[in-house]
């Protein structure tokens, strides 16, 4: 079977594995086959990696990096190898859940490829507001996808969900490249939006997180970054409120590093200095704030109002 070409995160991916979540790259009738191959940034291949894994003799460590390659193993799912920012090789376990295999390709594998190519992957979602990208970062369960879904319902297009890919344009501005037209929402978020779980498929069989197609409000072009907001829920509080505060000083740098997607794999690959320099540059160029949400109530739309009012006042430092 010929590989399929997809586009995501500003890169062109040629994949032997069907990736229905991704957008198929547009074809140019005047472009010959060799030119199409030359245009590919990353190849995704399926191959038996077991002999190589055994030869690496990694002991009990399921993640190992050597000479520009990162190799990891997920029990009951498969082996995954990323090389030089140009190649992902996948060896699924027999009988593995195909959705779960793709989830690791779309998440950890692509994030590692970005790191290897000098693209900063933040753990978050991003939407477009008045021509600027605004990223919402946070730990798992903080409400990043829920907030971006609420913003999209108010007419602000989704740019990316789960991984925010940051690079720089020719003028030195930070830009966010579009991911792919899907969001992942937990059951409580579906309930908050009045959505029915039977209308959507789960991300994979083991969790009740749902894949929501968002083609109708997906933004397909890269956008300059206007700001980054960390979501800091504090559900143990008895009252519900939303506060937006500025993050200043060295805390900005710490925030960016701590919300780098699969940040624990940065040092393993010898990329700690790259992350520090990239985060420092980003810290100096955009607004960074924190949204503190207290209480257990569904506050996504209150957060939307707080964010859009703030942005409409022109309070961002994107250049």
Q: Can you characterise this structure?
A:
The structure is a single chain. The protein has helices at residues 33-39, 50-56, 98-117, 144-153, 187-193, 250-258, 264-268, 272-283, 300-312; strands spanning 4-8, 11-15, 23-24, 42-46, 63-66, 69-74, 78-83, 87-92, 120-129, 132-137, 158-160, 163-168, 174-177, 182-186, 201-202, 209-213, 223-234, 241-246, 287-294. The chain is α+β, with helices and mostly antiparallel strands and 319 residues long. The strands form three sheets. The protein has an eight-stranded mixed sheet with strand order 3-1-2-4-8-7-6-5, with helices on one face. Strands 9-10-17-13-12 form a five-stranded mixed β-barrel. β12 and β13 form a beta hairpin. α6 (250-258) crosses α8. It starts with a strand and ends in a 7-residue tail after the last helix. Residues 29-35 have low confidence and may be disordered.
């Amino acid at each position: 079977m010929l590989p399929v070409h997809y586009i995501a995160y500003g890169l062109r991916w040629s994949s032997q594995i069907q990736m229905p979540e991704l957008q198929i790259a547009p074809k140019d009738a005047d472009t010959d086959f060799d030119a199409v191959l030359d245009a590919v940034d990353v190849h995704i291949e399926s191959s038996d990696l077991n002999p190589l894994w055994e030869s690496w003799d990694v002991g009990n460590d399921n993640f190992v990096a050597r000479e520009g390659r990162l190799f990891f193993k997920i029990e009951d799912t498969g082996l995954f190898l990323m090389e030089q920012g140009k190649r992902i090789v996948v060896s699924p376990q027999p009988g593995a859940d195909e959705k779960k295999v793709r989830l690791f390709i779309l998440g950890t594998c692509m994030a590692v490829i970005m790191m290897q190519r000098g693209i900063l992957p933040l753990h978050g979602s991003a939407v477009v507001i008045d021509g600027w990208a605004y990223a919402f970062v946070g730990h798992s369960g903080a409400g990043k996808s829920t907030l971006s879904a609420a913003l999209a319902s108010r007419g602000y297009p989704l740019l990316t969900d789960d991984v925010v890919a940051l690079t720089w344009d020719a003028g030195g501005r930070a830009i966010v490249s579009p991911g792919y037209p899907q969001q992942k929402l937990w059951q409580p978020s579906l309930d908050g939006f009045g959505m029915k779980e039977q209308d959507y498929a789960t991300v994979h069989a083991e969790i009740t997180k749902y894949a929501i197609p968002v083609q109708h409000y997906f933004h397909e072009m890269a956008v300059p970054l206007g700001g980054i907001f960390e979501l800091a829920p504090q559900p143990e509080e008895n009252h519900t409120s939303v506060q937006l505060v500025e993050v200043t000083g060295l805390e900005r740098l710490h925030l960016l590093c701590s919300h780098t997607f699969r940040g624990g794999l940065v040092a393993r690959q010898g990329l700690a200095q790259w992350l520090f320099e990239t985060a420092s540059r980003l810290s100096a160029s955009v607004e960074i704030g924190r949204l503190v949400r207290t209480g257990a109530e569904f506050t996504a739309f209150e957060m939307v109002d707080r964010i859009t009012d703030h942005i409409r006042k022109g309070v961002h430092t994107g250049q």
